[in-house]
Input
Amino acid sequence: MKKSHFVYFAIILAQLILTGSISAQDKQKEMFNNYSKLLSPEKVYLHTDKDVYFATDTIWFSGYVENASYASEFDESNYIYVELITDQIYRDVASWKKFAFYEPSVAVRKKIKRIDNTFSGHIVVPEMNSTGRGIIRAYTYWMLNRPAEYMFYKELELTNPMKDKLVEEMRNKKVKNRTDYLRIGELMPQDSIREDKYKNRYDVQFMPESGNYIIGKSATLYIKSINQGGTGAKVFGEIYNSKGDIIANYSTDTLGFGKAVIKSVPEGILKASVKDTSGHEDDKVELQKAVLRGVIIEGGFEMAQKYGYSDIDRLNFRITISDGLVSQTDDLHVMIHNNSEIYFNRNLKQLSESYSMRLKSLPAGIHSITVADMAGNVYAERAFLVLPDPERKKLELTADKTIYGKREQVTYKLKLPGNIVDSSNVFSVSVYDAGVVENIEQTNIESYMMLKSEVKGYIENIAWYFNDSIPLDARMLGADLLMQTQGWKYYDNEKILQGKSDTPYFGREYKQTLFGKVVNPFRLTKKATVSFVAPSINFSAMGQIDSGYWVLKDVNFPEDTRFIISAIGKNGKSTSHTPILQDDYFAPMYKYPLKGEKVKYTPKYQKIVENIYFNKDDGEHAMAFELSPVVVTSQLITPKNSPSPIPNFPIRRDWYRDTVAMKPYTRSYKLGEYIAETFPGVRYNTGGSLIGPKLSPASGMSKPGRTGSVIVYLNGMSVMREEVWSILQMSLNEIESVIYVSGLSAAPYQTVQTAMDLYPSPVLMVRTKPHVRTDQVPYNVSGGYPLGWQKPARFYSPKYDTPESKKSKAKDNRITLYWNPAVKLDENGEATISFYTSDSDSQYRIEVEGRSAARQYHYAEKIIERVKESAPAKKK
Output
């Protein structure tokens, strides 16, 4: 779906314009309620089969979509967009110092449709992907109205042992051609990006509770320190006033969290020293400036027991108003909301007031305390997190045995308590070899939906906060430190209370819609008849437009569906009108926080991955990573998408370039510039033609000055000399593959005009992508491949249910043993899953995630024990 202004937007705006007959305080509450019902955001969560993948591996995922507000009046979207984001290399033409640079880019994008109340899909990791950290991101169209920071993202470890081995061999052989490295997405050793030199060892932030502190009043500062790797660090120091006197001391724990109290905030600039136990000291940090007039909210938890909530557990908070706001006391009020409703709303009568909330009565999740005036101006905000009750009813996993051998069937029963079972229960299940890969991300559906989805930045050790085996009081205090330092801006409370929330630009996507326009050589065509045909789905439609723009609603099409669009003028005869299909809108790129350390893998993992890679039977692998750099360039291949006019004619690998090889150049290079840059001896002159060396068939040598124009083939057809310039001006985004050949090897491709020459002319063969128009298409016809939904695929898991299959000599080195994106529970809240073990004797990890009635999230995991095979005795 593209830019949408649905009818309900008008309803939204109408409901947000309130009458003046109610009080300002009630009006603000009504503003919030309308936002919650009509404009509140959506959340997306993905459960993946594991967290570590290799090149050509498949990422299996199941998606969950939910309105952030349970008061929302709209159903959740029916489509989600899933992207694999990796660091990709690009040729740097703007810099004299850097040959190339890495930048996060979308490597693969898929659109997933809700089918049977489930979003399930898969992404194949590109074969040329380098070892490193990647991001899998997911969002709905409705979520495009909000910053990209609030879209679902999960860190993945991506490996490519085959490519790593090749690069190491290239470096050992001292390969010095930058282009050879660039073709496989790597930099030369001397071009490797140097780490930035930081002036200070630590980044320490001092954040006043609720946003500010007032001169002359006591203040609590929450502290967060991180090291250069982006993780928490233990530091300590002193806080100084403008005269250099110490007014407070502080220290942080191993995760970088700390707290300091200033008894009376002085005037002037405050600074803090930063030290560590090694004796290192950073430059002093300047603190936020104190204010004369303002409001502060100070809060804390009072817990009576370690495990579970008691009736006397409380959130206590105090609101302090500065003397300068005495005249506005009657105008201020405090409210508390949980993203869905304002459940506490009181006028402030005094300069200091204290309140207490019973924790057991509050739903789990993030809550926000806000002090505002009657005009909706916010003076202070303080968020707090209520963790799920450890004594809540949970999903249970039960195995049929305690330990399993090789190629043995495993059966697990899932059980959910009956009072939280309904028809919407959906769970996803993964089982993977824990001896080969680890659970590195630690985020699950519960911790994401309740915490990570609403907080910006990296949350270190997020699983700790939701680990019910750890005392609840310790986790609540730790979560409060996190909330005060990480910051919560999921809702812009001031805009909401003032009724100034941004009008949505993108609507909720329930059905697919295409947008576009019709133009003529001079302007937008106001009136025309537009026709649509999609042969692969037997679709056709026709309609008239009177504004120049067209909308094709309620279409249902999978990926790789081609739409052919034609237009004629209002008289039904003119064909000088061209229909244009509007490009899809996608989320902007954002640099999500990642762990600083490099991705590493064990020799065992490398052996398993190489075995899987080189034994695949899909025939798609073209890298030949097992070959040495010398053999790689001279190996004869027959590319699948060869641009050669001679069918199935073998060529040398170094003559051939595909979309992967061209990827680093796509931003700034045209075809002619790319050929001249990456093939030796080729020049791209100002007249728009390619000049290459002409070699003697007898000697293979070129006489001085012996050059000639390059013969060009486009999609297997010879191109006239006057047409070459326009082809060389094509963007690399339009090119699928190219071959450049010179010397004796170019002889089979000579034209009638050059066939008798003593020196064969060099030859360039070009193949364009399927959607690029290269033949004579009527002016009033166009087409395109808009992003359609991914067709569901089934995860394959072998069965060893016969004696013959158990004795099979074929190796079973599966890393993911089992994946089911949609396990449905019966009316008793039960389901059974089964799978067979592999040849590995490592422990397995089973993970189950899902959602039950009343927005309850579930995550359960178990370790599956294995029978260890004894090592064969050594021969004496």
